[in-house]
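User: What would this chain look like folded?
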Amino acid sequence: MSKTKLLSGLLAVIVSVFIVITAKAQAQSCPENINFSNGTLTHWSAYTGNFTNPNGSKTISTYDTASPAPTGTIGAVSINESGYSVYGIQVSASNAVDPFGGFPTIPTINGFHYSNSVILGSTTVAPGSNRGLIRGISYTITVPAGNSGTPYTMTYAYAMVLENGSHASNQQPLAKATLTYQDSVFECASPSYFLPTSGAGNVLDAAAAAQQGFKLSPVASPNSIQQENPYRVWTKSWTEVTFDLSAFRGKQVVLTFEADNCIPGGHFSYAYFALRNDCNGLTISGPSSACSNGIVTYSVPALANANYLWTWPASWTKILDSANILQLMPGAQSGTITAKETNSCANLQASLDVATTLPTIPGKLSGSNSVCTKNNSSTISLSGNRGSVLNWLSTTDGTNWNIIPETDTFLVASNLTTTTSYKAVIQNGASCAIDSSNIAIIKVSPTTVGGSLSPASLTICKGQNKGAAITLTGNTGAVLNWQYSTDSVNWVNFNPFKTDSVFEINSVDTPTVFRAIVQSGVCPSDTSRLSLVNIENAYFPQAVLKPDSLALCFDQKGTLQADITIGTSYKWLTTNSLYDPNNGNIPYTPYTVSALVAPSRSSNYILSVQNAGCQNILLDTFHVKVFPPLIVSAGPDTSIVVDQPLQLFATASDTADLAYLWTPAYGLNNTTINNPISTLGPLLDSITYQVIATSSFGCTGSASKKITIYKTAPDIFVPSAFTPNNDGRNDVLKAIPVGIAKFNYLKIFNRWGQLLFNTIDAYRGWDGTANGAQQPSGTYVFITEGIDFLGKSIFRKGTIVLIR
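Assistant: Here's the prediction, encoded as structure tokens.
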């Protein structure tokens, strides 16, 4: 009897007993450094080599457990590929990201953090045919003696990067785990992982690959192979596997991990393996505290070809039950999660007591405040929350949030120099979602700066009520009010308040000092520097504009007029389109000045008045609005037949509130609308109508339209000849529609039937060219069509002569 059959029989006897193995067995130590915890390959043997033919013959270099590196594995961190100076075996103690798969090089699966991993293989491929690099590591495990009903489990996780070789499945790059006892393979704990192919061409079965957890990498293969798609690298992220060694109590078994390139060569394989340092049986990974109405995930390491059975509390809702992974929405009651997985050589069971907690409530912050910069303090308080404060967050720009490592339900914000927003981060237990409170804002005002007044001193004339102003500059904060004083000691506030930054001086008759009161937010107020206003012993000029604004039509003149009651001379500072300004002295007061204006666009006209003895000048402005010209169109001249109704239509550049008047009234049904109908009898040969449009402001525009009356039936006339020689006479051939309500087309053809000209516009004619080229003298054919005012189609065809 073979060793494999003997082993299978032994296992069958053991399994027939079907002892339920639970995760609550007594603690048992795992083999030393089984999880690469010391960062080396110590206690693991290793080998590298290559296949030399398709039948699987190998050339192997081995590294034993009794010797130090480089010939053995004691203290070894890495081993090169066979024949290459790149790593084929390497222990990874620090986490990174795989460049093809984007997964971490050391996994965390459902909350369990693996400490280290080993990488078997590389992207290196051997040249030539029938060669494939291999590399592997093995651990001889002495299973502790004891009750075979007590589990002794090994749990590992693996991840892979495989280059699709488009070979038969048994020749594809692969990774595998093998468990042997006395040179016999323990089949149910010895899976191989490779890309599935199908068909005569060994085409990758993408659907099957995806079902097995493979994904196509967006990164191209570093190995150039002619006629192969460079995007042929597939990856599989971390997956957990477990197996039970309790059947081998007191015996030794060998666990081997291996990664092989494809046997024909040219396609690489590398894989990651990580092991748990926990041999006590099946363990459920997942939170022991679950948030009700949240989503929680539990899992157990996969068992090859196993059946899985999960149970959970009755009030919980299943979201996903997929083999070794269970996803639930917890109910209000606590309970126990159990998992059972069985295959032909193992029956494992585990349980996990789970307590439920209520969902997080972030609560509400109070304490928003306004403070002055630097020396300030505000307390923000959280209330109504369910859960603990994990930390606080702050931001000064609304985008970038900074962590404040405080866990109290209140926060003291002090000595702020910039407006800052705060919120608290809350979580009710590790299984509940993290949430954040509303935002509390501490508005920070900069220190008040009173600023300066410009000018610092000025002189005004008696009775001056315009043309003198004080401007506040360099201030920080808003103007609360202005103050004045005649002795610089006693200050009077303006009532009503004046809050503009420009203060207009009005009727000051004694020397007076002015200042502005400024405040920035909640900071203490400050006063500006002073401005002194002196009084000159002469009166300020006075004038009244009559009126101060005009509205004129384009090309219309208007009169600007002002009554001067105080002043000795005047001058117009704006002279554009100003007529008869009569600048000069004022012989007496009151005195009236006037001028005609006719600007082409809206303009301002400034009148300057001066009074002898007063250095300040009165400047008054007239505002003149000019309406743009009113452009009117009555449409092109046309021809009709006797008694044919003709719709007239006038348009204007300004369509608002226009009045229309058509003259003469002969033949019109209405003379005061923009679209009257004209019906003309045989007494006239032609008539010209004029239409005048008038706007609501009295601006007018006009246009005319000539109508020729034919004493024939409706027709389309086409001249028999034309001379396109650019002499300004008979250069263009046009159709002449008479009594035609709708002109359909005019088409010109040469004697070979080629279309040279086509138009639907009766006012557009042929200039004797086609495609930019002048056509020769000769006879051409025309066809034209229209519809008369009774709806009858008029069609004409004939010849015309082009003469050059």
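Residues 1-26 have pLDDT under 50 and may be disordered. If you want, I can go into more detail on any region.
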